[in-house]
Specification:
Helix content: 40-55%
Oligomer: single chain
Structural class: alpha/beta
Distance between the termini: 76 Å
Length: 274
């Protein structure tokens, strides 16, 4: 009688009863997607999540991942702010180096090309934090960095000395590229590079694309960690930046690095451990 009232065949009814009793075959994938999104603090889009799933052994089409993420409301929503650049340029106060890198941001060996820059963060109490980073172009890894509440010369000298101390013995010279900020024109910085047989390269004046890798990193850092969060004091923000750089170097995968994090890419493609 029930089948006549519902106007469906008995076989159709029992087919769907059986389907509802079956476990969800996507349950494992869904849980993996949730774990990936939580680990990356919901900064991955569906393409990067697809790559992360592949790294875990899941073979899933990116269209299916996009559909599942949409149904779970896990779409990336971090990139809504524009990055404001810190300007350290004060005219010609020292030596202006030639643009040796000239936007050639490719190399097949670590420590051959290194880019550096400084960025500024403003806290709610109007206090400021300055971050100076050095990135290896080979693996896009942040190999040294320093933070301070004032943009003194030490914010550059401390990480560049740390970089020099940890640099392995290589049979080619390194080049460090920066903008024309006064820190990089300073005689002490110039002498430090020269004494350690490191070439110095500088962007053209007012041309941020000449240091695009560093600008891109600062953009990611602020969009994924800083914007939308409330940092009440200096030490809180400093700790968050430390944690983000650790996450970026060790866990954040990049398509251009074959779906690996910067450190994993370096370890799997180059034998020198530094």
């Amino acid at each position: 009688m029930l089948f006549k009232v519902a106007n469906i065949a008995k076989s159709v009814y029992y087919y769907w009863v059986g389907r509802f009793k079956e476990p969800n075959k996507d349950e494992t994938i869904i849980q993996a997607i949730k774990d990936i999104c939580q680990t990356c603090q919901y900064t991955y889009g569906y393409r990067r999540v697809t790559q992360a799933l592949a790294n875990l052994g899941f073979k899933v089409n990116h269209k299916k991942v996009r559909k599942l993420m949409k149904s779970l409301d896990l779409s990336c929503t971090k990139f809504t702010h524009r990055n404001r650049r810190y300007k350290a340029y004060k005219g010609k106060v020292g030596k202006i180096a030639n643009n040796l890198i000239n936007r050639r941001f490719k190399t097949d060996r670590p420590y051959q090309k290194i880019v550096t820059d400084i960025t500024e963060f403003k806290l709610k109490n109007d206090q400021k934090l300055y971050l100076s980073t050095f990135m290896d172009v080979y693996s896009l890894e942040i190999i040294s960095f320093s933070m301070s509440d004032r943009p003194t010369l030490d914010i550059v000298m401390t990480p560049v000395q740390a970089l020099i101390n940890q640099k392995p013995k290589i049979n080619y010279r390194s080049t460090i590229h920066s903008d024309q900020g006064w820190h990089y024109q300073h005689a002490k910085y110039v002498k430090c590079l020269k004494d350690n047989k490191i070439f110095q390269s500088m962007s053209r004046k007012g041309n941020c694309l000449d240091n695009a890798l560093m600008e891109n990193f600062f953009g990611l850092l602020k969009q994924e960690m800083f914007y939308g969060n409330q940092f009440q004091h200096f030490d809180q923000l400093k700790q968050a930046i430390h944690q983000y750089i650790d996450f970026y170097n060790n866990e954040r995968i990049k398509t251009k690095l074959k779906g690996l994090s910067p450190k994993n890419y370096r370890r799997q493609t180059f034998e020198t451990i530094y």
